[in-house]
Amino acid sequence: MAKNSGISPVAQMRVTKRHLWSSDRFQRIAFILPTSIFLLCLTLFPFIYSVYLSLHFVKMTNLSKKIYAGLENYIDLFNDSLFTTGIKNTASLAVTTLTVEVLLGFLIARILFELSSKRGINFLRSAYLVPIMITPIVVGVAANYIFTPQLGIANYLLGSVGIEPIGFLGIAIPARLTVLAINVWQWTPFMALLILAGLTSIRQDIVEAAKVDGAKWYHIMFWIEIPSILPIILLGMTLRLIEILRFFDIIYITTRGGPGDNTMVMTLYTYQQGFRYFHVGLSSASAVVILFVSITVTTVAVNLLRRAENNA
Amino acid sequence: MRDSKIKMFILYGLAGAITAISVLPILWVVFGAFKSDIGMMTLPPVAPDFADWSLIIEFVAKYYPFIFNSLFVTIGSTIFCLILAMPMAFGLVNFKLRGENFIADWILSTRMMPPIAAAIPLFIIFNGLGMVNSRASLLIAYTGFNLPFAIWVLMTFIRKVPKELIEAARAEGATWFQTLLYIVVPVSLSGIATTATFVFIFAWNEFLLALFLTGQETRTLPVVISSFVGTGRIYWSNIAIATLIQSIPPIIFAFVMQRHIVSGMTMGAVKD
How far apart are alpha carbons B72 and B248 in whole angstroms? Predict the structure, then answer.
């Protein structure tokens, strides 16, 4: 806007004011800053506060009294067999569930790939997405209902083929397998559809050329398909790892870590220490360990992923 | 010819079986909404009576405040999340900022953070502000936790907006704000819808934060469902009806969004 010299002081002010409002610099700041501050307050600050709390003795019932504890909470934490069991269970859950999901996911992706342009397959694919989208708590209560010892449909179906009823969620090994099965049920679709997207992006002329040269199906699988979907599998595994480290809802609603400590995971331990036993310091230490593990795991996984993508 | 027909038959059978396994467990509980408490526990199973809505109506009449809580927190946080994420995503794509990559990486890393790690501090902070047991605390927390994902996914959509469009608008004298509102938003509407859907589902499905940030009155539906699974008598009919209501948005979105779900979930993961 052109300034002319005969303008009144008030109008002049209005002009400079509008100038400030529409100035490039001001707008840029207005775009970035509020969201950044909000994010800082809600994500970074709580994590730093967690670290601070983990170095103090604090009771939930008397939050104002904080006594410096050094690394005492961490020492207590790693001396608590419930916590170390939680780490072990989380790790074994990660390994088993990822293995099963990738293998099963590949198999299912192959089936869907063969049918990809056929009729009705879109509907089947949509239905197959339901486990991914459904609320974890709903998955948990569904599991409770289906696996109820005497009156559940699972034992009824087993009984109809002559198998003795199983205490699915009440006995050590079955409970762990049931938790694994719930995870696999919920997340194999994700892995399968991800792998399916990878399979679809493979150029079919290469596959045809290989067939002409006499390649068998397993040659194609090991030399063409698997190498080209490897980055996608790694991506899926990374996302699943993040999810497993957060795994809480279903355990909370089904086994609560039981029987004994057989399905105890790190998140549940953290929750119970904080909100059931009110050991804020110990709970925070446990939270910091989870945080540390997630940062390490995801950094390694993301680096692997970027390298795999650059090679592909 | 015959051979491939048999092959197709087997493949369809397998695909159908996989789909059935994916959907039936949920339907099995949801059908319970049309049975009585006793009916749900009867073996061999009794058929649900889809004409009988009396228990569902009774449930909604009693528990509608909690359905409202869930909707309020979910819709509210989705709107706030988009309002905060849109300018940030636009800025990160279009401004030449100092430390741009650093900010992007920071957002990505916060997306990886497990919420449990922030649980106790959030509780203490909201407690200090006298906001525990309010809907606002959950609304703020959900907005914050979904922001990194929303920003990240919106960035990939905004990158697809032709640079010439933005440059032309700027050359015509449009402010950044006008460029965002009148050029970028209309062009990337489908991307915004996809992002909104995900943020909505994340908030709708969330349980951990809701568990300790809500009180008796402000509980969301997942917390209500978990409270039905207490010790002692389990009210299966209530669980089934709550499950039915809780499952409506996810199932609708699974069918409406089908092609975008897996790609959307991976979009927020790494740099492309």
Answer: 16
Interatomic CA distance for residues B114 and B246, integer angstroms = 23
Evaluate whether B198 touches B153 at the Cβ level (below 8 Å): yes
Residue B31: strand, helix, or coil: helix
In this prediction, residue A8 carries a pLDDT of 57
Q: Is the pLDDT of residue A207 over 80?
A: yes
Residue type, B170: R
Given CATH 1.10.3720.10, say whether it is the number of domain B52-260.
yes
Q: What average pLDDT does chain A have?
A: 86
Q: How many beta carbons lie within 10 A of that of residue B183, not counting itself?
A: 18
Which of A188, A123, A17 lies closest to B256, judged by CA? A123
B16/A302 Cβ within 8 A: no
Query: Which pLDDT score, from 0 to 100, does residue B230 have?
Result: 74
Residue A91 Cα to chain centre, angstroms: 14
Residues in chain B closer than 8 A to A126 (CB atoms): 254-255, 258
Cβ pairs A/B, distance under 8 A: 280
Q: At what angle do helices B100-112 and B135-159 cross, to 10 degrees?
A: 130
Reported ipTM: the value is 0.90
Facing B112 at nearest CB: one of A124, A145, A298: A298
Exposure of B263 in the CB half-sphere (CA atoms within 13 A): 11
For the whole model, what pTM was predicted?
A: 0.89
Collect contacts of B232-238 with beta carbons under 8 A, ≥24 apart.
B235/B37, B236/A145, B236/B32, B236/B37, B236/B40, B236/B41, B237/B32, B237/B33, B237/B35, B237/B36, B237/B37, B237/B40, B237/B55, B238/B59
Helices and strands (H and E) in chain A: how many: 15, 2
Angstrom distance (rounded) from CA B267 to CA B191 = 11
Amino acid identity at B85: A
Ranges of residues in chain B whose predicted pLDDT is under 70: 1-2, 231, 268-272
**What residue of B is the nearest CA neighbor of A52?**
B121
Position A107 pLDDT exceeds 90:
yes
Mean pLDDT, rounded, for A49-53: 92
What's CA B246's distance to the chain center, in Å? 11
Contact across the interface for B28 and A146, Cβ inside 8 Å: yes
Count of beta carbons in the 10 Å neighbourhood of residue B25: 24
Interface test with A, best of B4, B22, B172 (most A CBs within 10 A): B22
Q: Is B226 on the interface with A (CB under 8 A)?
A: yes
Rounded Cα distance between A219 and A221, Å, is 5
- Could you read off the pLDDT of A291-304 as tens digits, one per residue? 999 888 888 887 88
Taking an 8 Å cut-off on Cβ atoms, the answer to whether A287 and B117 are in contact is: yes
Q: Coil, strand, or helix at residue A67?
A: strand
Q: Residue A4 pLDDT > 60, yes or no? A: no
Eight-class DSSP state of A165: P
pLDDT > 70? residue A22: no
- Cβ under 8 Å to A: B residues 142-171: 143-145, 147-148, 151
Instruction: Single out the residue of B51, B13, B47, B59 nearest to residue B235, CA to CA.
Output: B59
